[in-house]
């Protein structure tokens, strides 16, 4: 993306949460600003558990480029953004590429949920949390390069990412929550690091291409049906 060209010739542009500016041109969306970038659609309020605590800290806003959501194909986010918050690119069904700066520390709830054409994502070296349903339903996502700094992989974070085959578990991860990799049918090789403490219910349910999975000694809790369809599970004792 030619950022200066997009900024100069944008067909539409505007503000988002006062601290961000966005520019859109021919499928290219460029965003610059500081802090957390997020918005909410009405249906997200039905998220379980409730978002009461979230709304105590954040005032919901509507996606400012909503009229162009299905035209967005490429996204570049400038340095300064610290969080890709609630639903910021949810249902961008034609999104193909995204460039995330190394200032981002958290990928939030539903951030890229149902981005149906997103095939690859690279999370830079300061990300610590991949929140619930962050990439849920990204059915063509094949490669996710995740920084070793990630400590939490949230509920359903990669749920139903059917094509996900290339994934290296972060070395500092402590928690893999419920449904995190459910039905990731093409995952073939996963190495769980020492220091991992929690594996949630159905975390690797339906990961039928994983031939064996070694559970490190550090794991304190394994949820119900966490490894259904995994050929062999080995517990280090």
Offer a concise description of the structure:
The chain is mainly beta. The chain contains two helices and 18 strands.
Mean pLDDT: 90
Largest sheet: 8 strands, parallel
Q: Give the H and E element order.
A: HEEEEHEEEEEEEEEEEEEE
Strand content: 15-25%
How would you explain this protein's 3D organization?
By secondary structure, the protein is mostly beta strands. 5% of the residues lie in helices and 25% in strands. The chain has helices at 3-9, 52-57; strands at 12-16, 20-25, 28-33, 35-37, 74-77, 81-84, 97-99, 106-107, 120-122, 129-130, 143-145, 152-153, 166-167, 175-176, 198-199, 212-215, 221-222, 232-235. It has an 8-stranded parallel sheet, with no helix packed on it. Strands 1-2-3-5-7 form a 5-stranded mixed sheet. Strands 9-11-13 form a 3-stranded parallel sheet, with no helix packed on it. Mean pLDDT is 90; it is low at 41-50.
Index terms:
mainly beta; eight-stranded parallel sheet; five-stranded mixed sheet; 5% helix
Which secondary structure elements does this structure contain, and how are they paired or packed?
Blueprint (H helix, E strand, L loop, with lengths): L2 H7 L2 E5 L3 E6 L2 E6 L1 E3 L14 H6 L16 E4 L3 E4 L12 E3 L6 E2 L12 E3 L6 E2 L12 E3 L6 E2 L12 E2 L7 E2 L21 E2 L12 E4 L5 E2 L9 E4 L2
Parallel strand pairs: 3-5, 4-6, 5-7, 6-8, 8-10, 9-11, 10-12, 11-13, 12-14, 14-15, 15-17, 16-18
Antiparallel strand pairs: 1-2, 2-3
